[in-house]
Amino acid sequence: MAFAPVLHAEWIKIRTLRSMLWALGAIVFATAAFSALAALDGGGDFDPLFAAFFGVSFGQVAAVAFGATAVSSEFQAGALRVSLSAVPQRGRWFAAKAVAVGVPALAVGLVTGVVSLAVGTAVLGEKANGLTWTEGLRGTVGCGVYLALMALLAAGLTALLRSGVATLGILIPFLLLVSFVVGDKSGTVADFLPDKAGQVVLHETPEGTLGPWSGLAVTACWTVAALLAGAWSIRRRDA
Amino acid sequence: MTSIDTQDLTKEYGSNRAVDHLTFRVLPGRVTGFLGPNGAGKSTTLRLVLGLDRPTSGTATVGGRAYATLDEPLRHVGALLDAQAPHGSRTARDHLRALAAGNRIGAGRVDEVLEEAGLASVARRRVKTYSLGMRQRLGIAAALLGDPPVVLLDEPSNGLDPEGIIWIRELLRRLAREGRTVLVSSHLMNETASFADHLIVLGRGRLLADTPMRDFIHARVEPRVRVRTTDGPALRGLLTRHGYEASEDDEGRWTVHHARVEDIGRLASDAGLPLLELSAEEGTLEQAYLDLTAAEAEFTSTPAQPQEA
Q: Are the Cβ atoms of B91 and A16 closer than 8 angstroms?
């Protein structure tokens, strides 16, 4: 079987569920809204680029929900059996699912980056004057890639755990609590957590061991690992 | 040749053997009823045929090939496993469009099968607004999507209204007439009797019977004749003389056991006995099935394994 028809099928499944579209919209909205709030509050030793992208911490929850729901809908009431009867090549099927999750997440993530930067710098006003054009571009692209990677991380984890609830139960507390708690300690293994590493790209001056792109590469490694584990689970287990 | 074949097919879940060395062939051009109590392994067998579960040992093929090796499989095999599978928040049409797209089946065909399943007017409604009967129709529409030569349906009459039951019966018979291979699992005997030509019966994962339905009934249900006459005592005497066992009910109707109308009619005629009624009492599939499972229970009455649905 060719890949394109399978991808087409998976894309139809994503765009015909209202909850998927809501989750995508929520990525933009949550990120921009919290970036604006953070920019209002900006004071002390603050990083103007990260202030403009601060909302990503919240937008990523929507991205995770998007990735998890796209896969978890297959684990409800035998939906996976219908999918795999239509496409019995499981590896190809899961690859199509990942592309159907990753591409819209990346596109929406880039839009999120543009909107968040625009809103953030507008609210920051003079305090954003130090930002260069290349830093803004780097943050915007990084924001898109980061959000897509988080959506795919959730998709892979959901395929492994066969449950969206379990995935969200692990990822959301992790993103909202663990990272905030250990997040301030730079230069430790915490730098290599998927969210901490990937968010380096959103800072004007990177702290810690990783640079903007090496940080995203670390997040990508986590995502690839989750996707491979998910693919292994889909291929190995009875549907 | 698009038969379904299983060869020594076995599936174990832990220590529970759901399917036990099953070998059978389902042939095209007829409706094969797939019978057995809950937990007999019918659904597991269907999943194994569709490559969804991995057999512990043995093989299952469709048209000589393992399902997972089929290119665009919906064009070869259509299946309904679980009517609850379509996502409740998607419309019926979108559900079918996604399935069709993956197998390069045109959107026109989606509207065709929706029409055929009687769902055209509700095709753009979300599936969660559907009754169980409508979901069954949607599942059957999905099975027909690729115009496949092989159709597998797991309990398709579940939740259908009387009109729906007649529809599915006629649909199954038509599919068989068109030369397709049709395998329909059910635990409803009267329903199965109304459409099946051939039967495969499972019990505890093992093959109990693989035979034409008529033969199955005739081999298991004693033939009986019902007689009404103006002269009861004469009839009794006549039957006793010829070694028949007979009983009379309150309304004067006689039931002759192990007898055929040809024999009883001739006896009465030769004896000059006036008959008011003479009819064969057809055995039902239900009687034959219960007889088979009762016989089976005798042989397997010792350690009863816990069965999974």
A: yes
